[in-house]
Amino acid sequence: MIDKLNYVIALAREQHFGRAAEACGVTQPTMSAGLKQIEEQLGVVIVRRSSRFQGFTPEGEHVLAWARRIVGDAKAMRQDLDALKRGLTGHLRLAIIPTALSMGAALTTPFRDRHPGVRFSIISRSSTDVLKELSNLDVDAGITYLENEPLGGVKTVPLYHEGYRLLTAAAGPMGGRTSVSWRELGEIPLCLLTPDMQNRRIIDQMMHDSHAPAAPLLESNSITALLSHVMTGQWSSVMPSTITDSILLPAHVRSIPIQAPTVVHLIGLVVPQRYSISPLTNALVREAERLAISLQTQEPER
Predict the structure, then answer these.
(1) Distances in Å between the alpha carbon of 69 and those of 22, 124, 175?
(2) DSSP structural state of residue 142
(3) Which of 23, 157, 171, 172 is the most buried (most CB within 10 A)?
């Protein structure tokens, strides 16, 4: 039954029969037969069928929610039993928003010191995709914004507040300033994250409220790409202070606080809110709580 419930979860993720079957490592007829068996056992139709996947029925949405819960609990049980035999081992998958990727090492490095048998995968995702992949069991935890979008059924560990700075050429029109306003950002060529990123939506909103709509000349979903353009001295960008404080800027680039108003947004760890939390995820939550205490002692008062 667990394997068949995985078919339901994969179908919700892929929105396509063929891709879902491939993700589960089975043929499409095998997956279709498995879904049919679930429907017969439960006495409900869970999938709207045609030549293409057309979504779940209302009953199917309920089955999907239970499938995620049951599969997640089964995984937690297996990890718990493995931990009894070998200690904490396994694979932790984290989805992190681009602006918080540098914080990943502050979480994984001390975690691995305590639990050397654990390996990690870290992927960069938008805040929306962090929650989506967490819901679909594609990742075990995420680091994302905690206050900007509905989070749903997750447990959160607040880590730090994201502030914002202008990275710009020292020889440019604002290079000699000690602070700039959001409105003034409309006067210089900017490179920013793509609109699907929450960081970009925050910047857009602040500039709109300041009557200076953002019109970047370059967009990317990669912080590295933005930084490489800024380092040429020909571009400017808005970056979180956690990033600007963690890199050594060349003399020709300056990091300037953005004020009028000063804006901060809370970033934290998110994990599924379930009765049975896996030992790996539970250990990650404890590590995040330790990190939060350390970061709070470093944060300036706002």
Answers:
(1) 22, 25, 53
(2) E
(3) 157
Cβ atoms within 10 Å, residue 299 = 11
Contact 192, 168 (CB under 8 A): no
In one letter, which amino acid is 185? L
- Cβ count within 10 A of residue 146: 19
The tokens describing 235, both together, are 């571009």
User: What's the predicted TM-score (pTM) here?
Assistant: 0.76
Residue of 256, 300, 296 whose CA lies nearest to 164 = 256
Mean pLDDT of the chain: 88
Question: Would you give the distance in Å from CA 74 to the centre of its chain?
Answer: 24
CB 270 within 8 A of CB 133: no
CB 157 within 8 A of CB 285: yes
- Report helix angle 279-298 to 104-114, nearest 10: 130
Residue pair 92/119 in contact (Cβ under 8 Å)? The answer is yes
The two structure tokens encoding residue 291: 């990190």
Alpha-carbon distance values, 132 to 2, 137, 152, 215 (Å): 21, 9, 10, 29
- SS3 per-residue string spanning 161-183: EECEEEEEECCCCCCCCCCEECH
Residue 80, token pair as written in the block: 């718990």
Q: How far apart are CA 21 and CA 31, in angstroms?
A: 6
Cα 36–Cα 37–Cα 42 angle in degrees, nearest 5 = 100
The amino acid occupying position 3 is D
Q: What is the pLDDT of residues 50-87, one digit of tens each?
A: 778 888 999 998 888 888 888 877 877 777 777 766 77
**Eight-class DSSP state of 279:** H
With beta carbons less than 8 A apart as the criterion, state whether 124 and 101 touch: yes
Assign 227 to helix, strand or coil. Answer: helix
- Listed in sequence order, the residues at least 6 apart from 227 whose beta carbon sits closer than 8 Å to its beta carbon are 167, 237, 239, 243, 247
In 3-state terms, what secondary structure has residue 44? coil
